[in-house]
Design brief:
single chain; mainly alpha; three-stranded antiparallel β-sheet; two-stranded parallel sheet; globular
């Protein structure tokens, strides 16, 4: 690969140091919803031998096997249900709603209640190679943990919670055993984190906003709450947390890369960029959504800036490599070294800015999120955050863990930031984890801000969020409390536990 090759095909030829950087988005996110994220997590953490492209084919094979057994009135060894009952289980009891444009397609799409469902359901695409959605959760665990040992401990803890153990409810045990009998496969064992996975140096993000750091703390709190509820309710809470954190993490990476590109541009212009570059690369406060307002235009703007930054950063990396340099992009210190390399070769780098602007003009449709990676990223962010629209109107209330919902019933109504009941329940639980007794609703606003959602805590008493908190029994109205409201823990642990 050369600099010329990159200019000819900029999206498919990223520099290896860019692709392997902790700031990169490889594999690049595409379409997903909350259940795809959880199914992908099952495969990443406990089913390493299953490629994403195999999942739809496995679903069709299972469907055909059930049809044959139903015709013969048979069942596989170890199964409690015959073919007809199994068909009802997967097509009615466990089936999650299809989107309006998927209503005529026949494929398995079931709730990811147990790991065995991930062998045949939950792929992002029905054909071709899907992106491994579970890798995104893995990246958040790695980036948000202070060191590799703590990341590995949390990863093992998450695997143990996702597994069906003696504390799970009867239906979870039944479903695990039944699916294992029909598919001939059992989920597990743990797929360990690898040392070579990209990470930032320890202490790199101390004092800076990073959704992954909050996600790591909240994930532990959600795992600890598993024994306090049914498997279905716990999986819903986990979905709500992962989907809120996943998009926040991706948008945070957008902002970091945008800041890196601004820094490199300043270096190309001959400006001095000394000092601790962490203060120029990492945001001290991170906000990309505002409660009660539209979100799509903000997401498009963030994606467009990121794509421009990606083109610019790769242009510089390939140009320096062509000039005999060995650029790297793994930390603030390495970016400082990259800036020094640009300064040393500024005369030889004069054509990079011109080439970058030509790329921007040539790739404007991608930069506007109308095709290619820009469209894919917008689709990812939207479908993960949106409340799922069901082809069957009877299932329109199926998704309650959303972050964005339609303002009104019209198809043209804008999507606004208004988290659903399960998202609120999960966030309140996480915000009160590790503390005793009620706390001010300001704590909830601060917790949402850690995921990039801006909310004035003084408005909660009068807005939609305050109404939902009251309906869910998550607040106490008190004239002595700040804003007149106190958060209360949603779950209580019995003394016997």
């Amino acid at each position: 690969m050369t600099y010329t090759d990159f200019l000819a095909s900029p999206w498919s030829n990223p520099h290896p140091k860019y692709r392997d950087s902790p700031f990169s988005l490889f594999p690049a996110p595409e379409y997903a919803n909350s259940e795809v994220l959880i199914a992908g997590l099952y495969r990443t953490i406990g089913a390493s031998g299953i490629a994403e492209r195999q999942v739809p084919a496995r679903g069709r094979e299972l469907d055909q096997r059930i049809a044959r057994m139903r015709d013969r009135r048979e069942r596989p060894e170890g199964a409690a249900l015959d073919g007809d009952a199994s068909h009802t289980l997967l097509r009615t009891v466990l089936e999650s709603p299809k989107r309006p444009n998927q209503s005529s397609k026949r494929y398995f799409q079931v709730m990811p209640l147990v790991g065995e469902t991930a062998f045949f359901s939950g792929s992002a695409r029905l054909t071709g190679n899907s992106w491994p959605a579970g890798f995104l959760t893995q990246q958040m665990v790695l980036l948000g943990s202070s060191n590799l040992n703590l990341a590995a401990q949390l990863w093992s803890k998450l695997f143990a919670a996702l597994n069906v153990d003696e504390k799970d409810d009867v239906f979870a045990h039944f479903l695990r055993d039944e699916l294992a009998a029909w598919t001939g496969e059992t989920w597990g064992p743990l797929v360990e984190l690898r040392d070579e996975l990209r990470r930032l140096p320890e202490g790199e993000l101390d004092g800076f906003a990073c959704p992954a750091k909050q996600f790591v703390a909240d994930l532990s709190a959600i795992v600890d709450a598993k024994t306090l509820m049914t498997r279905r309710r716990w999986i819903s809470m986990l979905e709500a947390l992962v989907r809120m954190a996943a998009v926040a993490h991706v948008v945070w990476l957008f902002e970091v890369q945008t800041r890196i590109w601004e820094l490199l541009q300043a270096t190309l212009r001959g400006e001095e960029v000394g000092g601790d570059l962490r203060f120029r690369i990492y945001p001290r406060n991170f906000i990309y959504l505002r409660f009660g307002t539209g979100a799509v235009s903000e997401l498009k703007d963030r994606i467009s800036k990121y794509l421009r930054a990606r083109l610019g950063i790769n242009s510089i990396l390939w140009k320096l490599a062509e000039l005999g340099g060995d650029p790297s992009l793994g930390s603030a210190a390495e970016i400082a070294s990259l800036c020094r390399s640009i300064t040393d070769r500024r005369e030889e780098m004069t054509g990079v800015t011109r080439d970058f602007h030509e790329l921007v003009e040539r790739e404007f449709r991608t930069l506007l999120c109308r095709k290619g990676i820009g469209s894919n990223l917008l689709e990812f962010a939207g479908h993960v955050l949106y409340q799922r629209l069901a082809a069957d109107p009877r299932l329109r209330g199926y998704d309650q863990g959303y972050v964005l919902r339609k303002r009104g019933p019209s198809k043209s109504s804008p999507w606004i930031c208004a988290p659903g009941p399960v998202s609120i329940l999960a966030t309140v639980h996480c915000s009160l984890a590790g503390v005793s007794g009620p706390r001010s609703v300001r704590r909830l606003a601060q917790h949402l801000a850690a995921y990039g959602i801006s909310l004035n805590h003084r408005d909660i008493a009068q807005n939609e969020l305050g109404q939902q908190l009251r309906m869910l029994g998550l607040v106490l109205d008190s004239p002595d409390a700040e804003s007149g409201m106190l958060l209360v823990p949603p779950f209580t642990r019995s003394k016997a536990a």
